[in-house]
User: Fold this.
Amino acid sequence: MSTSLLERSRPFHVRDAIALPDDDHQLTARAMREDVYPIHVTRTLADCLRRVVSLVNGAQVALITDERVMERHGRSLLDGLDGADIGTHVFVLPAGEASKSPASAMQLWDWLASSSVGRRDVVLAFGGGVVNDTAGWVASGYMRGLPYVNVPTTLLAQVDGALGGKVAVNHAVAKNLLGAFYQPAGVVSNVEYLRTISDRHLSAGLAEAIKKAVIASPAFWEYIDGNLDAILARDPEVLWRLVRFAAAIKTALVERDPYEEDLRRPLNFGHTIGHPLETATGYGPLLHGEAVALGMVVESRIAANRGLLDDEALARLIELLRRARLPTEADDLARWPDPRAIAAALEKVRHIRAGSLRYVLPVSLGTTIVADDVTEAEAWRALGQTGFRSP
Ligand SMILES: NC(=O)c1ccc[n+]([C@@H]2O[C@H](COP(=O)([O-])OP(=O)(O)OC[C@H]3O[C@@H](n4cnc5c(N)ncnc54)[C@H](O)[C@@H]3O)[C@@H](O)[C@H]2O)c1
Assistant:
């Protein structure tokens, strides 16, 4: 992250020894970088602060957070940074999905531009997935990329959002439309922060953990199934292990295709339907994890209707989601989304995914296939079986 003194003081010579190309030589440009970053899962604030201070490594910190996180946990983090002699600049966003917007990003860039934050300083994204995604996107665009450290404070962000380097803000026509792949310099997930999240957000985070179990790990399924009561009661040891297991699964899956080149990631399970449900409800009334839970039910029904997934596995998934206090049918929502809005959002996803709606379909708990031939009729049949009206 920082240039050594030796490198800085050495005179820099440019020798003009670059061979000029023949007329028929194909010019190419190469830029390669390997991003490797540590993921620390801590049990105490003191350990969390120690990890953050070490990652910041003496730079100034541009702390981006939201008002709820600031109110509950801002003081102790700022005191810790201050105690380590780290200069901080703080920007507090309103809490909620609406802050993940181009307008917030612009405000943050204006704020950075009027500060003394420079190329070697660090953006600290302190909050849930909204803050991690927005601050990461802002870091990626400022001065062509400032390093950023994620300190996720919700279960959803700790098991998923803060990892993998997908950063973005929403646009009115689609979620995450304006974004980049930009890896953090490190992630510090302190499970103590999970004591103060709402029950609803705890469940929403569990949806992303259950998703990982369905796509990649029967052992993780057993862990969640067997410890669900302790998770809901926020047993710190059980949460610590849950976050570590989820982080290991997510990074193993992301490493295979960090830039999502083949657009067929099993991690998108629940999202082909989930994202349009979120868009159709206007980002907010339905939490991301809740939308993913409903998406997993609908997409598993598509698999079951095709004879790929047996009814018992489908029933087990629905039962686990219900025990995790997640919505599994349209009637669980305060208001049904407008079917035409769902159809329009699905169409937009088709467009973003290069013309075809790819579905990650579970074949068993732990195995999935990717299908790009699911018809609209099949999707609406499964949505209908889950209680949604057709347009
Ligand atoms: N980049 C990715 O790979 C990825 C993956 C999954 C989800 N996401 C994104 O994450 C976002 C959702 O994240 P989220 O569910 O964390 O929402 P969020 O960031 O809005 O946080 C939820 C609420 O909890 C509050 N909060 C956060 N930490 C708290 C704490 N410790 N104590 C008390 N309150 C706290 C926040 O102020 C907010 O009101 C969505 O925009 C989604 O698209 C991104």
Notes: The CA atoms of residues 46 and 161 lie 23 Å apart. The first helix runs from residue 5 to 9. The first strand starts at residue 39 and ends at 42.
